[in-house]
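in:
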């Protein structure tokens, strides 16, 4: 595959990846095939030691060796080098605490990319906006990376497509050039609001689909929830200034279908277990990974109420998670709603 001169320059550089969960590790492994060197920050000391000794992320992405040019570090102040690209992949609710520490360390003019999916609960800010509160002006605006992408698939070399979005098209395209090497293909967008909302809110609908599956319902029900869920996401996104077409793209219907149907989906799995009668507390205690859809449900419902946007599936999931509404009753109440036109 031919490479332009600008792409060659990016490929010769260094990058720091903040967050060594499954997705952060998969992206770091991919970027190590592109960049001269990659540094991967590991939050937990025990995980850091295990990764150093085993040469892979046995906690979250086992079976995928770390390449020799991927360097691990644990102390935030011990960034190996002043890289001109930083990729943030921390859980959404932990991102502010991380960036309060590392924001002042960000090199002037660095390209900052966020691959986290979620909405901060206290402020209802998307991750890109909360990072920008803690960034030097020269590093703004943040680029968002989103789309239908399970970590294990990318690490295994399965063709994967994502979207890179920023209000600054030059930054979006720079990030696109950086990540685009087989098996990963990036598309550029200037609708960061829509891309980020699609990537966050699809987790709420995945919880609903999992709940339906846990109750024993099949493809008819799941297809209805995905379709009406996309309608809800588009409705809220449009009210918040997003381009409705974005929700028909990779970060919209693409990510929605993957997360609502894929066996690797953490949010769908939580929903299945809820539908089978387990409590949310017990489910979350048993998980090593973060199901972003749980906190995002409350944030999405709050955003919808603030803007008087109708989101019945989201409100039903909120009641199941936080108000003790039995899943079967929630589904019955959704079906009993007044009749209306499909696109109303």
């Amino acid at each position: 595959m031919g490479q332009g001169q600008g792409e060659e320059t990016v490929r010769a550089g260094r990058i720091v990846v903040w967050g060594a969960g499954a997705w952060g590790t998969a992206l770091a492994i991919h970027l190590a095939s592109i960049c001269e060197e990659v540094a991967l920050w590991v939050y937990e000391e025990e995980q850091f030691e295990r990764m150093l000794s085993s040469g892979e992320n046995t906690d979250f992405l086992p079976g995928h060796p770390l390449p020799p040019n991927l360097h691990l570090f644990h102390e935030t102040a011990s960034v190996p080098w002043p890289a001109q690209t930083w990729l943030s992949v921390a859980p959404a609710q932990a991102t502010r605490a991380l960036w309060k520490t590392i924001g002042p360390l960000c090199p002037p003019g660095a390209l900052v990319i966020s691959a986290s999916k979620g909405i901060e609960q206290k402020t209802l800010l998307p991750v890109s906006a909360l990072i920008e509160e803690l960034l030097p002006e020269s590093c703004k605006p943040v680029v968002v990376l989103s789309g239908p992408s399970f970590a294990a698939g990318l690490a295994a070399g399965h063709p994967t497509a994502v979207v890179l979005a920023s209000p600054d098209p030059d930054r979006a395209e720079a990030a696109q050039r950086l990540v685009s090497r087989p098996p990963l293909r990036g598309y550029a967008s200037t609708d960061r609001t829509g891309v980020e909302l699609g990537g966050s809110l699809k987790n709420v609908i995945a919880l609903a689909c999992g709940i339906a599956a846990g109750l024993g319902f099949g493809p008819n029900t799941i297809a209805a929830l995905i379709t009406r869920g996309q309608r809800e996401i588009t409705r809220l996104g449009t009210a918040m200034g997003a381009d409705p077409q974005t929700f028909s793209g990779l970060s919209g219907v693409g990510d929605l279908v993957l997360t609502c149907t894929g066996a690797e989906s953490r949010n769908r799995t939580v929903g299945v277990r809820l539908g089978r009668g387990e409590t949310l507390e017990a489910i979350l205690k048993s998980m090593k990974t973060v199901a972003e859809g749980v906190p995002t449900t409350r944030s999405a419902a709050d955003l919808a109420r603030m803007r008087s946007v109708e989101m019945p599936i989201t409100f039903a999931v909120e009641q199941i998670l936080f108000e003790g509404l039995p899943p079967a009753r929630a589904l019955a109440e959704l079906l009993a709603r007044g009749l209306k036109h499909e696109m109303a």
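note: The radius of gyration is 20 Å.
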